[in-house]
């Protein structure tokens, strides 16, 4: 027996698997902070006033990127007490989440002595546009980059972009930086790095999320379904999303109930992506949400524990069903299994390092 663990709220949950399973192998972790510092010092001066951080929670290596940026800022002679740091959580479509992310960034850079850390303001953004840190990450069938971020928040000018590329398993696999970072190259790189082709066709796919605070409300973690949106039909998908604080805000709930169409394009796409997957697969959700809500609004079956969900999944398929275990589905897209020599293998190009 092997214990396999997933983040679940502020804790971890596990299930025991004996055989016929595969654990998704994460992308290779970026580890070249010296080169990043060297490059950033070409673009950062002692006059740098502000850093904007587009924060995505649950990424291995992202906090190190943030710390490296501040190392470069300090070495460039910036007065850290006068420096302003602004944090955005725009992908999550939830202002309350942004407040939590601000506190997380404060913890990461507390030792640097930065004077001001706050949520990104909604006006006069060009006054705060020196350095932008924004990951390129697979999200609901597409890759969202700094270009999407800048357009969404209305930021038109900046001196330098730091763009971590997120690979499968929620791992920062590369970091691009400079005053001209190719959006096309980032999208291509992230699509390649996020892809995973199973070694054997899975009948059951278990997907973990980023944990607290993102999985505290359904609104901020619904996009996790996109991890499996490219799989062929009739799989059993087991998702672990705690949602101890409920569904989310009024706009999100009204959209789930089909009472309105939200102005926020990304919120609409979160819901659209879930519904697409739920229409093709058997969805099992390990969550604190009531079973009636999960069934009615999400077309899924609710379970209190991961073991219960796995028992049900194997009852639907078989005890010998092959299981793919994805510890962290952030920035990950599981592709169709391709037998050796298949056209599908040529199309996907295999798993990137």
UniProtKB/TrEMBL annotation:
Native organism taxonomy: Archaea, Nitrososphaerota, Candidatus Caldarchaeales, Candidatus Caldarchaeaceae, Candidatus Caldarchaeum
Coiled-coil ranges from the UniProt annotation: none
Pfam families registered for this protein in UniProt: LarA_C (PF21113)
TM region positions: none
UniProt name for this protein: Lactate racemase C-terminal domain-containing protein
Domain (Lactate racemase C-terminal): residue spans on this chain: 200-331
